[in-house]
Structure formats: structure tokens, C-alpha cells
Specification:
Number of domains: 3
Largest sheet: 3 strands, antiparallel
Distance between the termini: 116 Å
Structural class: alpha+beta
CATH class of the largest domain: Mainly Alpha
CATH superfamily of the largest domain: Death Domain, Fas
Number of strands: 17
CATH architecture of the largest domain: Orthogonal Bundle
CATH topology of the largest domain: Death Domain, Fas
Low-confidence stretches: 1-6, 183-205
Length: 319
């Protein structure tokens, strides 16, 4: 822009006011009336009596959106990664536009130092009239009409549903954890130690250690064991007898042979126990019979037999 060597008083007054002359925005500099740079440009060199104002584009990541006399454009804002998202990138004529993330807001009337979480619901007795936006929290107002019983019931059902859903989720997590890992116990010297293993590797929970029974008063172990058969026959339910015999590793042929060898039911059952005794040899003892009752979920029967044999004076606990 070519400036006169001595601007008129009228031109200087216009420059001092930053007004326009012939459609051009002007500003005073060293007694000269210079033309302002347009949006997106900064002043490179001010005008002189013989040369116009020289403008250059804003550098990267800077902007200026108005006609100006600045020698440096303004740095663009950077959105906060924690609580903001960028909705418009920086350009030579516009600053970066940032907005609060979903579920948060920042009032446009105040400096946005941080985005605040929106409320999830209105207070009791009020209803929502406007959802959360990046510039405002939810807007509530008193109910124009009281909520109907159906609306109240729906809220109760929804809350109950969410509670049940949460409980199911907790149960599923616990079940998954239980299936993935279990704890195995093994004896090391005189103390127990615990090792965590994968259940797929055959980890088993320890059974409660029962006290060992031994024949009382120095009785012959085999004689005492045969004398205990009557108590087993009397206490084990008849409907569970075959399952119990199979748990003692008697085959179906051995069970059938015992049934056919005797007409009396008691004698048939006694013969099955005798077959087990003959097969087991030294490993066959009272504690093995009791252990099989526990493993077949007949713990109540096992406890009654144990107490009966002690009260009869046949067995006693090992010291």
C-alpha cells in the first residue's frame, strides 16, 4: 500500500481510530497510515513513506481471525487428552475447537479449566427436560404431574433387574476363577503347605482327615472287621447297597454271584463284604470301608456306623 509522505490530519485521525478508509482497515505507525493485514496473516514489515505494509501467512499451529497489526499470530490451543476431544482443527484463521467428552460439560460462561461429570439422574420429584451436553449439565424441573404408579413400578423393576444382573456377573466371575485355579494341599514333613495349580492338571481339594479307628482291646483285626459287617448291613440303606459295593470295586458278576449263593438277604450282603475282604487282603480294613461311604456321599451313614462300633466296644480311636 502506497502511503503519502505526510498524511492528512483527517487520515491520521482515521488511522488512530483503526477505522476504514476507501474500504481498507488502517493503523498508525511512525506517523504513517498503514494498512492492516487480513485474517490468517501477520505483519512482516510495517509500511514506510514509500512501501506498503508487508504481510505473511501465519506459521503452523498459529492463527489470527481478524484484520490485525500483529507481527506474530496467536498459538493454537491444544485439547486436553484427559477430558476433551477436538471437534475442529487449528487453521490460519481459526483456533482449535475443543469440546468436553461425552458425559461431561463445561459452562461457556466460565474459563473451562476442567470438564465436570454430568449428573446421571434428576433428584426425586423432578424430571429431566434436557440431557447432558458438552456445555451444560442435565436440566431438571419439578414434575408437572406426579409420576404414575406404572412409572414408579418400572423404576423399581429396573433397579431390581440391575441388582440381579450384577449378582449374576459376580457369580460368573467367581465360577470362572474357581474353574481356572484351585488349591491343592500336600504334606511336607510335619506341616501342611499350599500350592496353587491349574485345575486341569488334576488338582483336588483335600478331604477332611478322619481319625483312624483300630480294634479295641487288642482284638484280631480280621475278626473285628468281620464282626463289624453286621453294623454296615444294618445301617447302609438297601437302595444304596449296590452302589456302595461297586465303590468297593466289586464287579457286577461278583455281586450277582453273592445274591444267587444265598436265599437270605442278610447272608447275601455279608457274602459281598466277605468277597471284598478276600480281594483286598491287607489293604482291606475298617477305615477303607468308612472312606468309601464318605466318597459316595453317605457321610451320615458313616458317622452312625463309626459311633455304633465305638459304643459296641469293637473299635476305638488310634492315639
Amino acid at each position: 500500500m502506497q502511503n503519502p509522505t505526510e498524511p492528512s490530519r483527517e487520515a491520521l485521525e482515521i488511522c488512530n481510530k483503526g477505522s476504514e478508509l476507501s474500504g481498507k482497515k488502517l493503523y498508525p505507525h511512525n506517523g504513517q497510515c498503514c494498512e492492516q493485514c487480513p485474517p490468517g496473516f501477520q505483519v512482516d514489515k510495517h509500511c514506510t513513506p514509500t512501501t506498503p505494509t508487508t504481510c505473511e501467512p501465519c506459521h503452523k499451529d498459529t492463527y489470527i481471525k481478524y484484520h490485525n497489526t500483529q507481527q506474530h499470530c496467536f498459538p493454537c490451543e491444544e485439547c486436553r487428552q484427559l477430558d476433551q476431544v477436538e471437534i475442529q482443527s487449528c487453521s490460519p484463521t481459526n483456533n482449535t475447537q475443543c469440546s468436553c467428552k461425552n458425559g461431561t460439560f463445561c459452562s461457556p460462561d466460565l474459563p473451562c479449566e476442567t470438564c465436570h461429570k454430568c449428573r446421571l439422574r434428576c433428584p426425586d420429584g423432578e424430571e429431566m427436560v434436557q440431557a447432558c451436553t458438552p456445555t451444560s449439565d442435565i436440566q431438571c424441573q419439578p414434575y408437572t404431574t406426579p409420576p404414575t404408579p406404572a412409572e414408579t413400578g418400572s423404576k423399581v423393576l429396573f433397579i431390581a433387574f440391575m441388582v440381579v444382573l450384577g449378582l449374576l456377573l459376580v457369580i460368573l466371575i467367581l465360577a470362572f476363577t474357581f474353574r481356572r485355579y484351585c488349591r491343592c494341599w500336600h504334606k511336607v514333613g510335619e506341616r501342611d503347605s499350599t500350592v496353587t495349580l491349574n485345575c486341569k492338571e488334576g488338582c483336588e481339594f483335600p478331604a477332611k482327615r478322619e481319625k483312624t479307628l483300630i480294634p479295641a482291646n487288642g482284638r484280631n483285626p480280621t475278626v473285628a472287621l468281620r464282626q463289624s459287617f453286621e453294623t454296615f448291613i444294618r445301617q447302609v440303606p438297601l437302595k444304596e447297597w449296590r452302589r456302595y459295593m461297586r465303590a468297593l470295586d466289586l464287579t457286577d458278576n461278583e455281586i450277582t454271584r453273592s445274591e444267587r449263593s444265598e436265599d437270605d438277604l442278610y447272608e447275601q450282603q455279608f457274602q459281598m463284604l466277605q468277597t471284598w475282604l478276600d480281594k483286598g487282603g491287607k489293604e482291606a480294613d475298617l477305615n477303607a470301608l468308612l472312606a468309601k461311604l464318605r466318597s459316595t456321599n453317605l457321610r451320615g451313614v458313616e458317622r452312625e456306623i463309626r459311633e455304633a462300633l465305638i459304643s459296641q466296644g469293637l473299635y476305638t480311636y488310634e492315639e
